[in-house]
Amino acid sequence: MEQVDYLLIGGGITNLAFAERIDSQDLLICEALDDVGGYCQTVKQDGFVWDYSGHFFHFRHKEIEDMLVDFIGRDNVRTVTKDSRIRYADRWIDFPFQKNIHQLPYDEFLDCLVGLYEIDDATDPDNFKQMLYQKFGKGISDRFLVPYNEKLYATDLSSLDVDAMGRFFPYADVKEIVLNFRRANNASYNATFTYPRGGAIEYVRAIQRFTPDDCIALNEPVLEIDPVKKIARTNKREIKFGVAVSTIPFPKLLEISGLDHDRSTYSWNKVLVFNLGFDKKGPEHVHWVYFPERDVSFYRIGFYDNIFGADRMSMYVELGYPADKDITENDIALAREKVLDDLKRQGIVTDHKLVSHHSIVLDPAYVHITQGSIADVTQKKDLLATHGIYSIGRYGSWTYCSIEDNIVEARALADQLNSS
Ligand SMILES: Cc1cc2nc3c(=O)[nH]c(=O)nc-3n(C[C@H](O)[C@H](O)[C@H](O)COP(=O)(O)OP(=O)(O)OC[C@H]3O[C@@H](n4cnc5c(N)ncnc54)[C@H](O)[C@@H]3O)c2cc1C
Questions:
Q1: Whose CA is nearest to atom 42 of ligand 1?
Q2: CB 232 within 8 A of CB 384
Q3: How far away, in angstroms, is 394 Cα from ligand 1 center?
Q4: Check: CATH 1.10.3720.10 for 269-362?
Q5: Which of 131, 202, 212, 279 shows its CA 20 to 30 Å from the CA of 166?
Q6: Residue 186 pLDDT level (bands cut at 50, 70, 90)
Q7: pLDDT for 221-255, tens place per residue?
Q8: Measured in angstroms, how far is the CA atom of residue 189 from the centroid of ligand 1?
Q9: Going by DSSP bridges, is the β-strand pair 269-278/2-9 parallel, antiparallel, or unpaired?
């Protein structure tokens, strides 16, 4: 039987970052698909460059950014000051909604403002939905925060943990909101972002270069793990490992490792992404737009062409679905028609001609972070670690995070193992 010190399950950005950092050449990445990169894939079609969904990067660690960007070449990576907006009541409102209620129709602005002063925060919120009402009041929550997040997460927001979006949630208190009426300060965690000319896959290649090709086994899913014997079975062989690092969705890891778990603890959404290429330019400057209104099928769209100044509208469009919804080819075709109609109603597509399109379903896309999932993940990760199996990454840790967070987490684990 083959043996490796480190068996890395999943060839996304997280395990590529682990492979770069670990002090061992005795490792094997098993990746189910025919290329590494996971969700950071790029599609190049008819002159358009699209990711699996808009993947824009906000680095907080300069050494990580330098490692990636120096390889790609500074001239090939654009740093952009974000222009993100909300489409509401036939207007463009600056993001975040809660700090720009003065841009709403007058009566709606008053409702939101009064709502802020009617907040009842005497007790701590129990869940995400309660948190929204307690922090932002009824006007803002009913108009944007609740419908937008329900479209995205495709679930009842009261099932989610208070902190379900972590640092990605744009908090603002009443004082900040009121001051923003005159002195706009809409800065958030991603006030600027970077994007490579060749798409997100460029970042993957920049980190993959540290791992020899013969340490990567493509088209080789791990199907079963025996945690006690430390043996993994793939579609091709059995491999004995010293340490396994898994980035596959956590409930899947529990299943293939034979660990009992209550399936209802884990839920998530699916995101259907359309990449659409048109024959001419659409709205200028804006990078992405949020759509809270329930009669619009998508919750967010973004414009690649406004990042590199291209002269044809090149968009991604995201639609949220519950995990148990089967999305057939027919559903996708119908959804694309509805998306195009909605884009016309919103004035984004006028007499444009659609010249290229592509779609992908991300499953899971946004995991539902609940009190139950947090407790179960913590307990079972600890248990697996006693067998030398570590679960990391966005889906391995069953969390909400960015690719930079994935790299930081992978490096921290490698450093811990290097020094043990
Ligand atoms: C809609 C959306 C938008 C996003 N936008 C951004 C953004 O703008 N900026 C940002 O920084 N991040 C963004 N992210 C997050 C980013 O995509 C993830 O953080 C990152 O891709 C996670 O990398 P990973 O390696 O942990 O997991 P993945 O990319 O999921 O990689 C896991 C790999 O495991 C493989 N695999 C699965 N099962 C098996 C098996 N049994 N055996 C072997 N291999 C297996 C998969 O094929 C995959 O290649 C976004 C995510 C989504 C869903």
A1: 221
A2: no
A3: 7
A4: no
A5: 202
A6: low
A7: 999 999 999 999 999 999 999 999 999 999 999 99
A8: 20
A9: unpaired
Closest of 398, 404, 400 to residue 381, by C-alpha:
398
Give the global pTM: 0.95
Distance CA(108)–CA(139), nearest Å, equals: 8
Query: Six-digit token pair at 348?
Result: 């984004």
Q: Which residues approach ligand 1 with their CB closer than 6 A?
A: 9-15, 30-33, 38-40, 53-57, 221-222, 247-248, 271, 362, 365, 393-395, 401-403, 406
Query: Side chain identity at 402, as an amino acid letter?
Result: S
CATH topology of domain 2-39+62-73+197-264+369-418: FAD/NAD(P)-binding domain (3.50.50)
Q: Is the pLDDT of residue 86 over 70?
A: yes
What's the gap between Cα 175 and its chain centre? 30
Distance of CA 104 to the CA centre of its chain: 29
Rg (the chain; Cα; Å): 22
Residue 190's pLDDT is what?
Answer: 65
For range 82-100, the mean pLDDT: 94
**Long-range Cβ contact pairs of 181-190 (< 8 A, separation 24 or more):** 181/102, 184/94, 184/100, 185/99, 186/94, 186/95, 186/96, 186/99, 186/100, 188/95, 188/96, 189/58, 190/56, 190/58, 190/82
205 CA to centre of ligand 1 in angstroms: 15
Q: Which value, to the nearest 10 degrees, does the dihedral of the CA atoms of residues 220, 224, 227, 231 take?
A: -50
Exposed, middle or buried, 304 (CB in 10 Å: 0-12/13-18/19+)? Answer: buried
Strand-pair partners of 399: none
List the domain boundaries for the chain. 2-39+62-73+197-264+369-418, 84-179, 269-362
Tell which residue, 420, 410, 408, 390, has the closest CA to residue 18. 410
Quote the distance between the C-alpha of residue 73 and its chain's center.
25
- Distance from the alpha carbon of residue 396 to the mean position of ligand 1, in angstroms: 10
Contact 165, 88 (CB under 8 A): no
